[in-house]
DNA sequence: TTGCGTGCAAAGGTTTTGCATGGCA
DNA sequence: TGCCATGCAAAACCTTTGCACGCAA
């Protein structure tokens, strides 16, 4: 994985800075664009997409798309934590992101690799569904 | 789940017929449209989307959105099989989409539900990684 | 007859691309 | 200086919506 590539520009720095400061949540192009505009350092949409593409390719950022309508979500990958090793759950109702540290799940990768010849990348993989809070709230309907 | 609803029209019959005949794979609006056109019974795009929406709502068809670019995929839900429960693997290198029918993975949902109180929705969840073909190709680099 | 279904075209939203200019190294 | 990055606008895509007409029940 390349740690970095290309020139360092003001736009790129601002973009990465925003992603790092929001590493605990998913964000999207619209949000990034609005933030940078409010910051007084507007960045063109095309540039955001282009930079994001590179960051994803370099393994610096994760890209998720679970709904063509909403647009893709992005998240900075934090090396210092062990987020790369475990899976994540994302609640489709409240948007909460849950880190899943579990032995059962750790065995999952090995199983898929051995039995299906597929090397799963946990840093790119998110389980979508409904969390317990939203699930119990749903029962009341 | 409602088994059916609304009027029976030629368009609706053709659409469902196509979905049933292709229940083993994912399809998309473009493919459906092209097929119906070739069949000599063209159906407007809007109609396809509208019917598909109803079918999804009635639980007759499953909708997947892997990738904002490619557009959504649809698949008829065959009650007789256990296809309802399986996950998908998507190769980040070649883009191949692999259907994962496996008992081990079926137990995964239950595990996460019981131990983590989270109801995973397989129709929204995709494992990203590298498939065996691309993996062996990588070794040669 | 009633009201849902259909087709067409236009609109809506996200993402990509072409091209000239700007800026890093 | 050479080449990549940026911005703007236009284009490309997928999907939804408005409206008039058609058709099932």
Low-pLDDT windows of residues of chain A: none
Helix count of chain A equals 5
Adjacency order of strands in the biggest sheet of chain A: 4-3-6
Order of helices and strands of chain A: HHHEEEEHEEH
Q: Characterize the largest beta sheet of chain A: strand count, sense, and whether it forms a barrel.
A: 3 strands, mixed
What is the molecular shape of chain A? globular
Mean pLDDT of chain A: 82
How many β-strand runs of chain A? Answer: 6
CATH architecture of the largest domain in chain A: Orthogonal Bundle
Q: How large a portion of the residues of chain A is in β-strands, by DSSP E?
A: 15-25%
User: What gyration radius of chain A follows from the Cα positions, in whole Å?
Assistant: 17 Å
Determine the CATH superfamily of the largest domain in chain A: Winged helix-like DNA-binding domain superfamily/Winged helix DNA-binding domain
How would you describe this structure to a colleague?
The structure is a homodimer of 141-residue chains. With 141 residues, chain A is of the alpha+beta class. Chain A has 2 domains: 67 residues, Arc Repressor Mutant, subunit A; 54 residues, Ferric-uptake regulator, C-terminal dimerisarion domain (Dna Ligase, domain 1, 2-Layer Sandwich), CATH 3.30.1490. Chain A is built from 5 helices and 6 strands. Chain A has a 3-stranded mixed sheet. Chain A has a two-stranded antiparallel sheet with strand order 1-2. Chain A starts with 9 loop residues before the first helix and ends with a helix. The mean pLDDT of chain A is 82. At the A-B interface, helix 4, strand 5 and strand 6 of A face helix 4, strand 5 and strand 6 of B. The structure holds a DNA duplex (25 and 25 nucleotides).
